[in-house]
Amino acid sequence: MKVCVVGTGYVGLTTSVCLAYLGHDVTCIDLDERKIDTLRAGHTPIYEPFIDQLLEQVAARLTFTTDYAVGVPGADVVFIAVQTPQLGNGSPDLQYLRAAAESVAQHLAGGLTVVVNKSTVPIGSGNWVDAILREAYERHHGHRPDGQFAVASNPEFLREGNALHDTLYPDRIVIGSDNQASLDVLSQLYRGILNQSFTPPTSLPRPAALGAVPLVSTDLASAELVKYAANAFLALKISYINEIAAIAGAVGADVAEVARGTGLDARIGSRFLQPGVGWGGSCFGKDTAALVATAAEYNLAMPIVNAAREVNQRQRTRVVDRLLDELRIIKGRKIGLLGLAFKPDTDDLRDSPAIDIATLLLERGARISLHDPVAADRFQREQPDLAAHLTHRIEDVFDDADAVVVVTDWSQYLDLDWDKFLPSMRCPLVLDGRHCLSADRLTELGYRYLTLTGPAIPPRSNA
Ligand code: UGA
To answer: How far is the CA of 67 from the centre of ligand 1 (A)?
Structure first.
């Protein structure tokens, strides 16, 4: 099929590369010329494992342009995957979506084009985009757009860092439209994924247990709400285990064991029960805020979702509280932070817990040293106020430190030669903010091991 994707961020680019891999001809449009030049040169403007290799493999079926006239006329499907940043009141800023829809409408030509909202948009946006397309089409073409387009919603469930895997091997595909023809077009577009008939890329083998992928084909509003309901549920699952972690610490239980014992109930499931500094990123914070904002428009309160947000924010302050418990005085202490990205395998810093934690520590008068194996350069650009505390040398984080906090569970930190760095610390305290290190191993080496809950475990040698 002939596909056009507007926006080359995580969602747009992953969608483009995967659809090209399935054999479709894909044109990617972005108004940012630098991004398009980078892509034309065979590089990706985002950090995402395996995307460079796959991009190279499907290059013949991908076109990159800043010009809507190249991609939209004659397209079977146009995906709009532009950014929808959060406004001050919690609702998303839809100016880029509006501009993209207007440009698409001007260039629509040929038979039916399905225009798909791939950006996470408030419930009801499908109708809103439909109205914008209709008005812009009439303005530009001078007649009504009868049968020229239909709007659909196709929410995205990919995780950054696993974007290609999640797109090729999803748990489900959700498509929503009030127009049957567009539902048919989209199920045809995704046929290769739905029946898993493609040959897997060598770097991304198909999970052994994966069978046919379920398709949820529904109306527009339901598809839009699925996205919010899913993200809010995942967010509250994390906040729930963090709330349980607090009581586990108080009663002397091991939260990791509690999470395991709880998650093995198939009705609950063990994923997204990893306790720690909580969620960050561009999605959970923004989407839970948007859900609460939409509910308010209908005079509905969302106490569960609000509580999940509150618990998540509290986890960031807990880091400082725990350091205070152990060190008594923070002023003048040196605290090293390992990990700045909101999670491993991405350089994304949006709403990253590390930014709040670093800021809180500085407010308390601490000296800080910040490290990330991938996101450091981006941090330099996006966080100029904190960038002076960055280091590219991991030994600087430990040198003379009173504590080191693991904020992001990068595999590099799990596999670190912890033995080597201990002697250079002033006080060998490790706060494992992601429950990702072995307490046994670290205390054996001579570290004092701390999590956000429960008492610190003293070094074995001194115990
Ligand atoms: C999330 C959803 O998982 C995707 O399904 C969705 O498509 C995406 O948002 C989106 O709306 O675009 P993402 O934000 O990339 O994906 O990352 P996740 O893997 O979900 O992690 C989110 C945050 O939760 C990270 O900061 C992670 O460290 C934290 N987390 C995750 C925990 O603290 N505990 C866990 O058990 C799992």
So the answer is: 33
* DSSP annotation string for 48-112: -TTHHHHHHHTGGGEEEES-HHHHSTT-SEEEE----PBPTTSSBP-HHHHHHHHHHHHH--SS-
| DSSP 3-state of 30 | coil
Total count of residues recorded for the chain: 463
- Find out whether the beta carbon of 176 lies less than 6 Å from any atom of ligand 1: no
- Choosing from 46, 119, 154, 158 the residue with most ligand 1 atoms within 8 A of its CB, the one to mutate for a pocket test is 158
Supply 307's token pair.
């509580």
Confidence of residue 123 (pLDDT cuts 50, 70, 90): confident
- For the chain, the first-to-last Cα distance in angstroms comes to 67
The finding on whether 160 has its CB within 6 A of some atom of ligand 1 is: yes
Residues 158-188 have pLDDT tens digits of 998 999 999 999 999 999 999 999 999 999 9
What is the three-class DSSP state of 256? helix
Pairwise CA distance, residues 364 & 196, whole Å: 54
CB atoms within 10 A of CB 129: 28
Q: Which atom of ligand 1 is nearest to the CA of 161?
A: 15
Question: Which pLDDT does position 463 carry in this prediction?
Answer: 45
Q: What average pLDDT does the chain have?
A: 95
Confidence grade of residue 47 (pLDDT, cut at 50, 70, 90): confident
Give yes or no for residue 256 CB within 6 A of ligand 1.
no
User: What pLDDT sits at residue 121?
Assistant: 82
Q: Is 149 in the pocket of ligand 1 (CB under 6 A)?
A: no
Say if CB 334 and CB 400 are below 8 A apart. yes
pTM: 0.93
Q: Which atom of ligand 1 is nearest to the CA of 287?
A: 11
Question: How far apart are the CA of 233 and the centre of ligand 1, in A?
Answer: 11
High-pLDDT (> 70) share of the chain, %: 99
Phi, psi at residue 370, to the nearest 5°? Answer: -115, 135
C-alpha 152 – ligand 1 centre gap (Å): 25
Q: Is residue 18 annotated as part of the catalytic site, yes or no?
A: no
| Residue 406 exposure: Cα atoms within 13 Å on the Cβ side | 27
Tell me the C-alpha distance between 4 and 383, whole Å.
Answer: 34
Q: Give Cα 378 to chain centroid, integer Å.
A: 16
Catalytic residue among 4, 18, 28, 283: 283
Phi-psi region of 322 (alpha: psi -120 to 50; beta: other; left: phi over 0): alpha
Residue whose C-alpha is closest to residue 372's, from 323, 329, 406, 400: 406
- Measured in Å, residue 252 CA sits from the centre of ligand 1 at 28
